[in-house]
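Morning F.,

Quick status update on the modeling queue. The single chain you submitted on Monday has been processed. Sequence for confirmation:
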Amino acid sequence: MNYKSVFYVLGQILIILGLLMLLPLAVGIYYNLHGYNEASYLSFIIPIILLIVFGFIMRGRKQKNIRIYSKEGFVVCGVGWILVSFFGALPFVISGAIPDFIDAFFESASGFSTTGASILNEIESLPKSILFWRSFTHWIGGMGILVFLIAVVPKSRGNSMFVMKAEMPGPKAGKISAKISQSARILYIIYFVITIAEILVLFIGGRITGVNIRFYDSVVTAFSTAGTGGFAVLNNSILGYHSPFVEWVIIVFMFLFGINFNLYFYMLTKRFRLTFMDDEFKVYLIINLMSVGLITLNIMSLYNNISDAIRDSFFTVNAVMSTTGFSTADFNLWPTFSKVLLVFLMFVGSCAGSTGGGMKVSRIVLYIKQVNRDLKQMIHPHQVINVRMNKRVVDEHIIKGVNSYFTAHVITIVISIILVSLNGFDITTTFTSVITCINNVGPGLELVGPTGNYADFNVFSKLVLIFNMLAGRLELFPILLLLSPNTWKKS
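Structure tokens below.
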């Protein structure tokens, strides 16, 4: 382990987080000057000072060559996200919005991991700067703070790939440019542009259609959609706007943010064949539309208007599959078939290389293709059969990685469910709370459904779920490797 390089990069992360907190601080000052009671903006000053001071201490002297290899990349990723979630909780505590630190840590980890699980019972009364920070953590965590670090301060001399591989979701982290830093910048530019597009569509479209959605609401809603997190600023989530227009806009953007961002780059560079031949995107679209159709047929008897049933189906399927977690309907009240289908979508999740969570569609496709290959080889043991994705042979080490991830995913879920069951809640609440946290969805069923929250869980269960949220966002291994003694041996 190269501790100097690890501490240097962790210091950079803390400094960047401190600078990012200047934005909610500015929001608080703005609203305070315009007659709102926003004294809580002062709660950002202490964390900003702490982050910058600790960041410079950890950085130490400027290093000429930062050596980040596989082990260091995983450690930087795992420890970095824990630190970010820890310091991100301070504004909640200092402002009094969430006085208990464990609850604030839960809310912060849920924000940065883009899970959207909350312990808050009442939201609208909170200061605007706090609500802005709450949604902004989704936007920061969506693409990843380490990818942001690579994009703006590339210092690792060609070894940034190990950091990017540790943080980027999917079975394989790829480059869309010859340089990793340039790839990170391109991804963030695409991310930023689509976010701005949603803000403008919500705000301008709202004015045209007569919807009372303020610019502030458009911004924080776009942050939560872009990061596929789901924190809203109304107690009734998106339903509180009472607008089919707003719901359809969010449906479209939830779907878009669930797509691999590399495909957007291919479209911008006019490589349309690479976009439309993508197997993962095809399966993502098919699962999405089939689920909408099946759920609509299953719930239409509960609605007076078929258009409302269709819209709620589209919204809920995309909220769950993209792992955004917004809600316009209490699917706790839907028939069992629809609820089972939604739990299945929680596992599947979105595409690799998107801001969404879950196991990723590409892993599901590869796993099914691998099982199909193994069945064929049982019949024809001497025949060489390759697993193909996008008409290309998939390397065996990627197949092995998919199998390892699936095994680790199942084991982590089983252990977590056993631990959370000690809380004494019903089996549906216990099971879906773990499933939604490790897949970064947010709402589950029963007590943690769209109209519930996680406030009643005890401290131990909240810590387990925090572990699940961070592990799920980082694809398990960066967090699990922190528990291995071999990780910390100095090399």
